[in-house]
Amino acid sequence: MTARQKLLEATRSGNLATKNRFGVAPMTRVTATEDGRATETMTRYYERFARGGFGLVVTEGIYTDQAHSQGYVFQPGITDEAQARSWQPLVKGIQSHGSLAIAQIMHAGGISQGNRFRDTTVAPSAILPKGQQMAFYYGKDGYAMPTEITEAQIAEVIKGFADSAARAVEIAGFDGIEIHGANGYLLDQFLTNYTNTRTDQYGGSTENRIRLAVEVVKAARARVGSGVPVGIRISQAKVNDYHHKWANGEADAAIIFGALAEAGVDFIHVTEFEAWQPAFGEGTPTLVHLAKTYAPNALIIANGSLHDTEKAEAVIADGADIVTIGRGALANPDLPIRLAEASELREFDPAILGPIADIKDSELAL
Ligand SMILES: Cc1cc2nc3c(=O)[nH]c(=O)nc-3n(C[C@H](O)[C@H](O)[C@H](O)COP(=O)(O)O)c2cc1C
Q1: Closest Cα to atom 14, ligand 1: which residue?
Q2: Which residues contact 303 (CB under 8 A, 6 or more apart)?
Q3: What CATH number does residue 232 fall under?
Q4: Residues of the domain holding 330
Q5: Where is the NADH:flavin oxidoreductase/NADH oxidase N-terminal domain (predicted)?
Q6: Which amino acid residue places its CA nearest to atom 20 of ligand 1?
Q7: Contact assessment for residue 241 and residue 184, using Cβ atoms and an 8 Å cutoff
Q8: Which of 7-16, 166-175, 229-238, 348-357 bottoms out in mean pLDDT, i.e. has the lowest?
Q9: How far, in Å, is the centroid of ligand 1 from the Cα of 25?
Q10: pLDDT above 90: residue 4
Q11: What average pLDDT is seen over the chain?
Q12: Whose CA is nearest to atom 18 of ligand 1?
């Protein structure tokens, strides 16, 4: 079988089975109602990826509680019955084409820039986040100074993830859960040495800094049971620090992926700017390869500039089971069909995301 045929073949690992190896990467589009319900526009937007042949669709990051988790205005949530129900038509739309619907659940922590429940932010430590708020999500200027989250609040965060996972499966009907452990949001703030200077069990060593992610995975698993896929997204780079690398390189990768494997994840979704590049500089393995090495029983989902099919084939050969496409899917919601038919792919046009990153009518017509 050629690598291209392999991309279009069904795959199965544990309790996760997809009709091909193409997924849509999670993308925040700030198109929910102000009170966090999924809208009809979102339903139409997500359905067309499934119609276009993607075997798996991961939603944008969905906030998990009515305290500090919300990151953006018009971000969807799954914190109560009304929000959870609003996802039902969207999930059905994806599933009606034989695709899996995965809910990405997230807590924005110190880089929250829009939250209708709180006007303060929390983070592992009271350290000013790097960078600027994102203008295309209605942000401006720098981030607020967060307060150090207490152990009691950490317990609430874990409960928020677990309850949201349960609502996503039981009420909304999602096929699986992706915990957002990447890109600079709360769980990644715990993992990152310079945003976490705690001296308790959640700070210090890499084992301690990955502990909250492990506890969230276990709590979500306990609520949804062993039959529902539960995974986590992991990255080095952050929305407010593109070039961050884990200080101890492969030794950190071994601890991080090993701990998540031990926690019982079904999949690990790794993202790098270019997924095929060495993780820690020339001559080192890719993050995909390291995830596969240290979490051999987890399905590995790879993301990062993989609309280039030759690169997608290379990361499959390197150990990934599924690839997810972000910008390339915005330009080509029917990318898997185009590949099967050997048609040309459209170039991604960044204008889709400006001035605000909300879903445009022009996209729905693609
Ligand atoms: C508009 C936009 C919104 C995004 N929102 C999220 C998000 O909610 N959660 C997440 O984990 N990643 C998010 N990402 C990152 C993408 O999932 C993906 O990692 C990134 O686009 C790189 O993949 P690509 O090269 O295929 O575009 C977002 C990316 C874009 C372009």
Answers
A1: 27
A2: 25, 269, 270, 271, 272, 275, 323, 324, 325, 326
A3: 3.20.20.70
A4: 3-364
A5: 14-342
A6: 326
A7: yes
A8: 7-16
A9: 6
A10: no
A11: 97
A12: 326
What's the CA angle centered on 175, arms 174 and 178, to 5 degrees?
Answer: 85
Give the model's pLDDT for residue 5.
Answer: 81
Distance between CA atoms of 323 and 328, rounded to whole angstroms? 12
Contact by Cβ (8 Å): 168, 87: yes
Report how far ligand 1's centroid is from the alpha carbon of 103 (Å).
Answer: 14
Residue 144: both structure tokens together: 């607020």
Torsion-angle region of residue 232: left (phi > 0), alpha (psi -120 to 50) or beta? beta
Residues near ligand 1 (Cβ within 6 A): 25-28, 60-61, 104, 180, 182-183, 233, 271, 303-307, 325-328, 353, 357
Identity of the residue numbered 197? T
Kindly indicate the confidence band of residue 13, based on its pLDDT and cuts at 50, 70 and 90: confident
Distance 200 CA to ligand 1 centre (A): 32
Candidates 122, 144, 123; CA nearest to 132 is 144
> In the predicted model, what is the mean pLDDT of residues 325-334?
98
Structure tokens given for 86? 């609003």
Total domains, the chain: 1
pLDDT tens, position by position, 130-186: 999 999 999 999 999 999 999 999 999 999 999 999 999 999 999 999 999 999 999
For residue 61, which atom of ligand 1 is closest to its CA? Answer: 8
Q: Which amino acid is at 94?
A: I
Q: Give the C-alpha separation, 366 to 363, whole Å.
A: 5
Q: Which residue among 327, 349, 352, 356 is best mutated to probe the pocket of ligand 1, counting the most ligand atoms within 8 A of its Cβ?
A: 327
| Ligand 1 center–CA 331 separation, angstroms | 13
* DSSP summary character for residue 58: E
Q: Which sequence positions are flagged as catalytic?
A: 185
The answer, yes or no, to whether residue 3 has pLDDT greater than 80, is no
Instruction: Tell me the pLDDT band of 6, cut-offs 50, 70 and 90.
Output: confident
> Is pLDDT above 90 for 230?
yes
On the question of pLDDT at 34 being above 90, the answer is yes
Alpha carbon 266 to its chain's center: 14
The pLDDT, as a whole number, for residue 365 is 86
